[in-house]
Amino acid sequence: MTVVFVCLDADALGGIQQVTHTLAQGLAVRGHTVGIAGLRRTATPFRYVERPLYGRRVPRWRVPWRGVARRWGEQALRAAAGGVVVLTCPRVAGLLAGKAPDGTRVVGQYHGSFAQARDGGDLADVRRHYGGLDRAVFPSADDAWRFAEEALLPNAVDLPAPLRAWPDSASYLDTRRVLGVGRLVPGKRFDRLITAFARAVRARAGWELHLVGDGPELPRLRACAAAAGVAGRVVFRGRVGAAELGGEFRNAAVLGLTSEHEGMPPVVAEAAAHGMPAVAFDVSGGVRSLVLDGTTGVLVPHADLDAFTGALAALMADPARRRRLGAAARAHAAAFRLDPVLDRWEDLFAAVRR
């Protein structure tokens, strides 16, 4: 069938885009006609798939949000006529509400958690624009249930974010390196990770914190590392290509996740697939579905920096426990391999087309 994903920014660096390109390539490999349409041009595009088998359309200009963007989106909907269109965020769903051609099924996707929607202002838009669609897709069963109960969505289902690929080998977990991966933006709260690392590393020689990603928070985070006395131990790696990211996981021992909000963060699944345990704030059902506390990693209460520091220090000091949790994480991550997730998407497409 024909499947078109419509994004606000199709080529930006972020979890929504990674999931979208991964699904598009996987569905194209299975023989579907797949496209991705972006409503705005990204200033610094990121390449997620080396040889894409799907179409991609983005404007040649950075269009204003309304007007031209709506017309561009309507063209994308016409390209999906008779098939399925996936609207990947509430702003896109609001812009294109009711514009799909007759016979075209429309799925709304929300990549964040219920708490993120509630606290960040998306909840009203999800309630307004997603309830009348053929399905509303959320990243975890817990989030789908909360949207169904508290936002009164009768069409809520859960589909996890898929892994881009399954690594052939796992990390040995013997490199004295804590890893943080993501855009350097306020919501990721890498300042918390730097602070926790600084406290945990005082009695442990040789450990470093590597932050992979770029963004506007870089100067502030450098200052935070200097103020915490670990400027020489915090390495800012900048943007790393998708093909090289596996090496970052293989050469680290613990993943740290200190975000204010997350849906189902792909970075945690990728770390788990490489056999790496995570220490994470318990901020969503998606995080809980990836980090099984005490089994595949450690969950601590949201924003409890003392608990996070203690959990991180304990894993840094205990290589045997890191390997035990890491092995369990890799086994658990098999459920998020691309093929089983694609099976569920195809089941959803078949259900909405009946």
Automatic annotation (TrEMBL):
GO terms for molecular function: glycosyltransferase activity. It comes from the Bacteria. Residues 171-331 form the Glycosyl transferase family domain. Residues 14-149 form the Glycosyltransferase subfamily 4-like N-terminal domain. Keywords: Glycosyltransferase, Transferase. The keyword Cell wall biogenesis/degradation does not apply. Gene3D superfamilies: Glycogen Phosphorylase B. PANTHER family: GLYCOSYLTRANSFERASE. This is Glycosyltransferase involved in cell wall biosynthesis. It comes from Sphaerisporangium rubeum.
